[in-house]
Design brief:
By secondary structure, the protein is mainly α. About 55% of the residues lie in helices and about 0% in strands. Helix 6 packs antiparallel against helix 7.
């Protein structure tokens, strides 16, 4: 874990106050910006260097839309930012971030539910007659349409819902009965959210309320996170309009709000991310800027030391560059860099992108290493610019996949108050933790 001595300190004032003060200072003109020395790093072409050298550009962005919205964007409160911003790039970015967070939760569900089902079945084969195996199959199929459901003899209703998930049809065949598995109709609503038919369909399930099932026990919806992710991505597409991310990044004069507080150093990095991954879920993981830094790769295996060395190499580039930038910019530029922790924030977001990619590539130990080095240890249980919500969702998944179930619960507990939707995941992983601590017999929802 990166030591506190090398991490930029959090300002004593509230972050919101720091953003407002920095904005007001930037708009006032302040002292003239000193002429920088010769470019010493490829990072000199980044959006951070741009606003540090020309602070008025920052004020021009946050004051044109909504200062409160950009405070929310900086702090990782993406739903608040999206609500406060008008349709356009800023709102689309906030909605995209929120959608990726929901996808992180969906990926966690796709690990937690099968683990719970397998652990419970190993202790009590009778549970196979209940809804758990089916709900575990739903969690897996929603994230991987080609995965094995694990169901040996699904009912007609179960198979109909799984087929609708696999084909993304968004609807069940007319007259389909879900065999008591969807008495409130909210799983059908989830399917509608997934396919974009939610305007004319039943309300989807809620992650903080149990399903209404004709079965013993309390069960939560494993599909709600993926359904919300699809719905939120469509909102982002509408906010962005007809011009996509890659096209916007290659415009003659792309707007600063395309990059502000994001992990892409330049529009070239954003364009490369859009070209490499249309989901835009790993922005910052690679790109021309990082390539020019010649960082070591993660190696051929899931070796955490290789991930740590990669982060150390990144820090060896960032730390002296930030120090040089602070020496050469005006007081207004320094205020932006220090009060808003811009370099530390981008560093954190890059490590999150590396962790997400590591999890996608079945490297949970490396993901854990990235996440431990990303977290702001001075406020480890507080969401904020260096600790966005996705950090905790990814850390919970990495913990679960490396056999540290109770650690996964610790990470989820940070999300519970601001995101009640994780209640179902917390209950599911909590049951898994209890089962792992039991012998052959013990309490369960079925008893």
């Amino acid at each position: 874990m990166r030591s506190a001595q090398t991490r930029p300190k959090r300002p004593p004032a509230l972050l919101t106050a720091g953003l407002v003060a920095a904005t007001l200072t930037a708009c006032s003109g302040g002292q003239p910006t000193p002429q920088p020395t010769a470019t010493s790093s490829v990072l000199d072409g980044s959006w951070i260097a741009q606003i540090a050298n020309q602070p008025d550009l920052f004020g021009g962005v946050v004051d044109v839309d909504s200062r409160a919205a950009w405070v929310a964007m900086h702090e990782g409160r993406w739903a608040d930012a999206a609500q406060a911003l008008p349709p356009g790039v800023g709102r689309a970015r906030a909605e995209l971030e929120l959608a990726v967070f929901y996808e992180d939760l969906a990926d966690l569900a796709s690990v937690a539910w099968p683990d719970l089902a397998a652990t419970w079945l190993a202790r009590d084969s009778g549970v196979s007659d209940g809804p758990m195996p089916f709900l575990a199959a739903v969690a897996v199929i929603s994230r991987d349409h080609h995965a094995d459901t694990g169901l040996s003899a699904p009912t007609a209703g179960q198979q109909a819902l799984l087929t609708a998930l696999q084909t993304e049809s968004g609807a069940l065949p007319k007259g389909t009965a879900l065999d008591g598995l969807d008495q409130a109709g909210c799983l059908a609503g989830d399917l509608a959210r997934l396919s974009g038919q939610s305007e004319q369909s039943p309300q989807g399930c809620r992650g903080d309320l149990p399903l209404d099932l004709d079965a013993e026990g309390t069960w939560y919806d494993p599909l709600v996170y993926d359904a919300l992710a699809h719905q939120t991505r469509r909102r982002a597409d509408r906010s962005l309009g007809d011009v996509g991310w890659e096209q916007r990044a290659t415009q003659a004069k792309p707007p600063l709000d395309l990059l502000l507080f994001g992990p892409a150093w330049t529009t070239a990095d954003l364009s490369a991310a859009a070209a490499a991954d249309s989901s835009m879920s790993t922005i910052g993981a690679s790109g021309p800027t990082l390539s020019a830094l010649h960082l070591p790769d993660e190696g051929p295996t899931d070796e955490p030391q290789a991930a740590r060395e990669r982060v150390r190499a990144l820090d060896r580039e960032l730390d002296p560059w930030q120090a040089h930038l602070l020496d050469t910019v005006s007081d207004d530029g320094k205020a932006l860099l220090t009060d808003l922790q811009l370099v530390a924030q981008v560093r954190s977001r890059i490590l999150l992108a590396w962790a997400r990619l590591a999890l996608h590539n079945d490297r949970p130990h490396q993901a854990t290493a990235y996440l431990l080095l990303a977290i702001d240890i001075e406020s480890a249980r507080t969401l904020g610019p260096l600790n966005p919500p996705s950090l905790y969702a990814l850390a919970a998944q990495a913990s679960l996949r490396t056999g540290r179930t109770r650690e996964a619960l610790d990470y989820l507990s940070v999300l519970e108050a601001p995101y009640p939707i994780v209640t179902g995941l917390d209950e599911t992983i909590g049951d898994l933790a209890v089962l792992e601590g039991l012998g052959r017999h013990g309490d369960s929802k079925e008893n």
